[in-house]
Amino acid sequence: MFIDHEYIEKILEEAKKATKEEINAVLERAKKRDGLSYEDIAVLLQAEDEEDLKEIYKLAGEIKDSIYGKRVVMFAPLYVSDYCVNNCVYCGYQRCNEFGRRKLTMEEVREEVKILEKMGHKRLALELGEDPVNAPIDYVVECLDTIYKTQNENGEIRRVNVNIAATTVENYKKLNEAKIGTYILFQETYHKPTYEKMHPKSIKGDYNYHLTAFDRAMEAGVDDVGAGVLFGLADPKFEIIGLMMHNKHLEEKFGVGFHTISMPRLKPAKGMTLEQFPHIVDDDMFKKLVAIVRIAVPFTGIIMSTRETAEMRRELLKCGVSQLSAGSSTGVGGYKDREEGKEVSQFKTSDERTPLEVLKGVLDDGYIPSYCTACYRKGRTGERFMTLAKSGEIQNMCEPNAMATLLEFALDYGDKEILEKSEKVISKEIENIKREDIKNVLKSNLEKLRKGQRDLYI
Ligand code: SAM
């Protein structure tokens, strides 16, 4: 097993004794951006001095700016089934919870997708509970097909990431053939004893099977995988080193590690209360964790959901987050239900703003909300993506594509204010594009978008 518990505990203990000089030396190494050792990461995790923390946030912000520029990728989750055979202690869908469970028919999937398209979304995360009888892999594949085929005036979903339970190579092959974007699976906790306690008597209770899910996905040809930890279950410092070990394992075995890391914090849900969990992560610690992940894996996207408040998400964008969800519902059929005032959710969300409101906030802070899905559609995935990202070449595509998709959003779904704010950000940022040929392609694409063409990307 590649999560060496004893070793993690040992280096975390030793790092408690790190001096200011040692912390500075780690930060100096981190500035070179070619990754840190587990011991280095442990030192940063144990840092508590205000000055050291400021340095960590500053470096995380600089790394983020230089790699991601001003871009923030936008997406929304789509819950299609809450049937679940597992009994995860923290989850509203645990099988012991009694409520009217449902899964969407394809007609209902189309209705949800149309609502999401009207919000301007182009990128979804498909979510469902684990139930091989009520929601088998063929159901997931059918959902993917339905989503991609659901056109709405000038809208369509261009990338669907899938967050479903660990499964077999055969099933991952089916997902791959159905054109999933990233396969997302949260380890929940890397700490085996806690994992087993949190997932009693269930399919999901097999730690090793869950931990090796990405190995099977990659064997099946899925080359973008997105990891995550549910913060609140075990010691968060242990979890960060666990994430890094998992990432390294995939890099060594398949040549590429995580495409993204999601950082959900535990929220109240049906059948549980936060008091049951002794490792709840407070805001200061959470900010530190996000910054350290950004420093440790500069080229891996960090995803922040609406579990966090608007203020927290704003703060976290400054120290590493690169993707935000907006306007999310975490209930099956939740988007239609919300229109009818009867939404039921998997857990409580904290940022209830509409996508337009989220976008205004993001634009006001000088970022470029991006609806780009070009890499995936152009085959820039897995190792190919990472090579382009690490050489910096990806900037020539991401930056212009972000601006083009922002303008497309503003023209189709924005109000006057969004359009003005978007035009302002674009006219400023276009001047920062260094390559004249790229700048010219973008200018021409923006003009074409204003004249009614859509879906233009490099
Ligand atoms: N059922 C799938 C699986 O087994 O991996 C994943 C889908 S589930 C809808 C997505 C994620 O929601 C879970 O992996 C878990 O981390 C998170 N989640 C569950 N309960 C939560 C809670 N109370 N607060 C915050 N996140 C929660």
What distinguishing features does this structure have?
TIM Barrel, about 450 residues, alpha/beta, binds S-adenosylmethionine, iron
Strand content: 5-15%
- Could you name the ranges where pLDDT drops below 50 across 5 or more consecutive residues? none
CATH architectural type of the largest domain: Alpha-Beta Barrel
Number of strands: 9
State the helical fraction. Answer: 40-55%
Secondary-structure element series:
HHHHEHEHEHEHHHEHEHEHEHHEHHHHH
| Estimated radius of gyration | 21 Å
N-end to C-end Cα span:
41 Å
CATH fold field value of the largest domain: TIM Barrel
The overall pLDDT, averaged over residues, is 95
Query: Pairing-aware structural class of the strands and helices?
Result: alpha/beta
Biggest sheet overview: 8 strands, parallel, barrel
Tell me the domain tally.
Answer: 3
Number of discrete helical segments: 20
Strand adjacency order, main sheet = 1-2-3-4-5-6-7-8
Identify the bound ligands.
S-adenosylmethionine
The level-1 CATH class of the largest domain: Alpha Beta
